[in-house]
Protein: Branched-chain-amino-acid aminotransferase
Organism: Gymnopus androsaceus JB14
Amino acid sequence: MRIPPNMALWKTVGNGTLEGISRVADLDASKLTITLSKTLKPIPHHETMMFGNIMSDHMLVAEFDPEIGWSSPEIKPRGPLSIDPASSCVQYGTTVFEGMKAYIGPDGEPRLFRPDMNMARLARSAERMALPPFNTDQVLALIKQLIIVDRRWIPLFSGYSLYVRPTITGTQIGFSVGASDHATLCIMLSPGGPYFRSNAKPTSVLAVSETVRAWPGGTGGHKVALNYSAGFLPLRAAQKQGYDQVLWLLGDDMKVTEAGAMNVFVVVARDDGDIDLLTPPLDGTILPGVTRDSVLALAKAHTAGETTLPGLEIQNSQRVRLHAQERSFTMAEMVQWSTEGKILEAFGAGTAVVIASIGKIGWKGEDLDLPVHEGGLGPIAKALRTRILDIQEGREIWKNWSILVTDL
Ligand SMILES: *Cc1c(COP(=O)(O)O)cnc(C)c1O
């Protein structure tokens, strides 16, 4: 057998036993073939774009076979995949995914926000589901190629972007309970608008402890499909009670973990006049969000004087000092801070929403009302959201966070 030049080590695992190690082809963006759709869809009016309800014309597909490795990737018209109903993904939910966005900058060029973080997370998620490995630089190169092919789908309005959904799913056929040694990589694009419309209200969340999103040693720190489907029933129950999202708690002490599929932040007034910006630590039950990391980094840079967040300029000859901390907090602490009037703001952070303020927390049959701010967002959430959007949309440069899609 000819050994391909670009190789990965792949451990073939069947029924839980290591059968051997073979050298197979790694994912290779230089082998990409492109088959364009004969009919391009009309692009709907941007105001009809909800989150993920519209798809672009094309998708990228590559398949992994344990004997051959990764197939030559293909960009082709978007459509169904042919998947055997006995496949691992159908039977055992071996699916992982990513969520990132492409934005048009003032120069008219599409860019991605910190995609290296999404790629590293995709590799970790795939590993956690025992799916085949792949070269993440090649996945990123393929994402860029797909965006270039479908670049007319990137909306040209601020707050709008093209959502990128790389998905890897286990396609081994059979009911044997074990790792899937076949997989399909599929990348799709979906144009979307801002979470905040003019009449947007802050998000309301129902704190839930009877069901949990994640647990120590589980999969909560990875973007695996199973984490989401298990939350749909509690989400529907919360929505029936009039709340937008579930605030996921964990443990006997009711630690606050995440809000829906967003990382959660609370802004608390300190006795010394400074401000604490708290979010739970990455202990394996928290999804390591790119937005979360960006919020923490920008808040720290602001307090260190490396940048000044918009609206948080010097006040009373002092800059607003934010103490960004990864530390857990409980519902009991939230109630106490709220009673003492110390909660200034609470918000969720994630790629889809960027920053969404939380206005109300349902808990033990009552509502914990959080401060209401004009326009929905409090000053800290607004400063962070504005700065992150400015970087994403290429109006501000910060580190290497925004990269050009055309830099292949
Ligand atoms: C994706 C996700 C987030 C946000 O991560 P980003 O990288 O900021 O988009 C937060 N929590 C959960 C559970 C998620 O799935």
Q: What stands out?
A: Residues 1-8, 12-21 have pLDDT under 50 and may be disordered. Residues 249 and 257 are 6 Å apart (CA to CA). The first strand starts at residue 7 and ends at 14. The chain has two domains: 29-192, 203-394.
